[in-house]
Amino acid sequence: MRPEELENQAAYLEGLCNTLVAGAEIEREEIAEKEAFRVKIEQVCRVAISEYERKHNGVEHFPPPSVELKCFGSLSSGFATKASDMDLGLVSPLSQPQPDAAGSAIPRLIEKAFLDLGLGARLLTRTRVPIIKLCEKPPERLRLDLLEEREKWEKGIVDIDHADGVDEEEFVDVEPSHSKEATDESTEDPANSPRNISSLTGSSNEPRMPSIRQSENQSLSAYYNVAKRVLRKLGGRDITLSNCRELTEDDYAILNRVCEAFFNGLRDLELKSRLSNYQSLSFKPSPNVPSHRSLAGVYAQMEGERIVMLCETDVAIASAEDAEESTRVLLSSWKALQNQPHFGVEPLTYTKQVQLYLEKLRKLPTVQLLTLEQSQHEATTAYHARTLKILSHLRPRTDDQAEAAKNFIVDRYISGIWPSSVRIQVREFVTNASDVLDLQAVARRHKSLQLASELEKALEHQLYDHSLETDITEYVSILRGPMRKSNAQDPHYGHVIPVTRQNIDVVKRMRNIQDPSKMAVNQPRDPYRDKLEFPKNGVGVQCDINFAAHLALHNTLLLRCYSHTDPRVRPLALFIKHWAKVRGINTPYRGTLSSYGYVLMMIHYLVNVVQPFVCPNLQQLGPPPPPEGMSPAGLEDNIMCRGRFVGFWRDEAEILRLAQMNQLNGNRDSIGQLLRGFFEYYAQNGFMSTYPGRGYDWGRDVLSIRTPGGLLSKTEKGWTGAKTVIEYRPNAAVNSPSTDTPSAPHFSVKSPIDPPTPTIADTTAQETASPVPSKAATMTAHKNGEVKEVRHRYLFAIEDPFELDHNVARTVTHNGIVAIRDEFRRAWRIIKAAGSGNFSEELLKDAAAIKEEDEKSSYIQLLDEIHGWELFD
């Protein structure tokens, strides 16, 4: 790369950063406003806790000043931007039990005190630690909803479908499904039936067969999910790559019984009969040969055989001739695999083979047409386009069957429409039509009826302005009205919803309204958006109150000390935080990374990658860890906190003094040069162009800013596969904080699904650890508290500076890491192009704005598709 290109790239980034920081930096007035609110609510907390301690714990002289709301996070670390929310940690060292202890009444007590003042307050209990979300000026509707939610809690009413706010620990990827069976009608989940939980053990010592039954309208995939839940509730686990060497004979016994129950509960008798003829699914004991199975493998066998049954039906449509022969070979290989006699010797390998063949079957164009279904909330245009793509690989089986093939295609398209109400209307339209309709006309009718249904839902929920309701109601009638054959010689627009001189004005006005399909009522339920969600603007100061912020306060001070080491650190961190935000990759509960994670990525780069370094390693310059086994009682708070070593060089005044004298580093690179290197480091893992060493290896490396060199391996940390931890947290001691009841203990147990993750004992926490409870205890724990599975992912690994067993990036899912890495590669591509004067793409282009523009364009295209371009009389 030529020197002038490097200069141009650095200058481009320098200019962006200077402009951004000038506009994004938080104003002093905003900081003062937030501080005034903090002081106000701190006083509320002091009064509430002091009164509680006097009345219920008998502490007559409880000192209110001992209760503090300490600011941590970006506002305190120096990395805050405009409109940053305030993070506060409630500290009450004299309270027993501590506010963050399991069963403590203080979180609910504080929530009620805020609500009584007219503030908007909501306690989130399913987050990693209890948090109160608070806003200064809630809209009246939100305030009443929050009061109603509090009242429900006091009465012991638990809404299991309620999101309970942002739960970043339970985020899961939702794979798109093209099955409508599970969504057209509600089905009972047999896994929720008590008999399925107890039937394996019963009263005798002899194991029993669990009972699972596929209901009438339940898809095979939904039925498989039921079986997985039953397996978990029975204390079993399926075979995975991470646990295959650990499973005992008892584990296999439970797994095999659930697999057999899963098979026995199949509703399709023909499918069940065919499968039972295969040796791998006969469930008859074989002498001297293991018959171990995986639940995932049995499901794949069921799904694959269902597809084979469809392939063997006589239909009027087929693939190309050469593809037909390969299909016959594939079906023959599938059947041979099912009859493999030694399937149970290596069940994981066998499962992988079955899944591989299943994927091959699913990719057959004929199969894709035979199983064609519109997934829930899939756009009609996307469903139609998917159908056309499948048809491009198919042909009539014979020339004489051309007409039959067309009819079959239309029938398959209609049969796959979701929801059933629209499917019935489209079917009636085709049945009553005087002309023979092609797929284009049927799809256009589908689109008009679906749009009408979405508009009606939006009107029902009053999502449009009242002034638009008359027009929208009239437009719905137009969409449901008769189609007309076009007079224009355009084969694409054979039948359309006519635009006439009488309705043209209404149709034009509809082009300016919001797309109803993007409104919440017509979208999948978002567990992170509900009626209790705070608006982003117009509610005054917003903050989160954390009841376990002790380590977070040390983390914040560490980041603040790093910001003091060099004046370039702060603008660099602000730039990266803004970039991640506008590109939509900084939302942990949606599977990406928190802003804190991006700041740690920048610090790692400035400490360990840049040569010479910009920041010294403050943890290496701090005091050494205390000798192992030494009691934490005699150690200072700046050495140990809750069993964690928190030592680092924390003399802010001295760090600032040395930094101002340029004595902390010898690096004189510009901000633009540093940003260029940052994006290069994370965008590729080849050799760097301006610094020694290679780029970051996302698959193997763990970022560890405490460690010399800044990197550990995932193998070294034991972070090589996802792990599930089952946690039980009791509810607050009572529903009403006014009752004096001793708090219940908290226990955390490792799931049997995965091997344990090493943890460091918390020697000062009020929570008490318990050994693994009995299955009965686990199953009934939810009656007095909450049991949840917390998924620890290591696709991206950032070690917390103090909680060494905590992966800051554990919320990052598969889709999340793909998005993050794609954005780094996109940024690096744009930066390289800027070196040669190519500025055709914006580095900081708002991804949300692009999405909004695309959605508006798609809506206009849909209207054009429905109405065509002809004006009728």
Automatic annotation (TrEMBL):
UniProt-annotated location(s): Cytoplasm
Domain named PAP-associated: residues: 670-720
Record lineage: Eukaryota, Fungi, Dikarya, Ascomycota, Pezizomycotina
GO molecular function annotation: metal ion binding; poly(A) RNA polymerase activity; RNA uridylyltransferase activity
Family as reported in the entry's similarity comment: Belongs to the DNA polymerase type-B-like family.
Source organism of the structure: Colletotrichum chlorophyti
Cofactor dependence: Mn(2+); Mg(2+)
Official protein name in the record: polynucleotide adenylyltransferase
Residue spans of biased composition, Polar residues class: 189-216, 733-742
Region called Disordered, residue ranges: 168-216, 733-755
Major enzyme class: transferase
Record domain Poly(A) RNA polymerase mitochondrial-like central palm: where: 21-146
E.C. designation(s): 2.7.7.19
Keywords in alphabetical order: Cytoplasm, Magnesium, Metal-binding, Transferase
GO terms under cellular component: cytoplasm
GO biological-process terms attached to the record: negative regulation of macromolecule metabolic process; RNA 3'-end processing
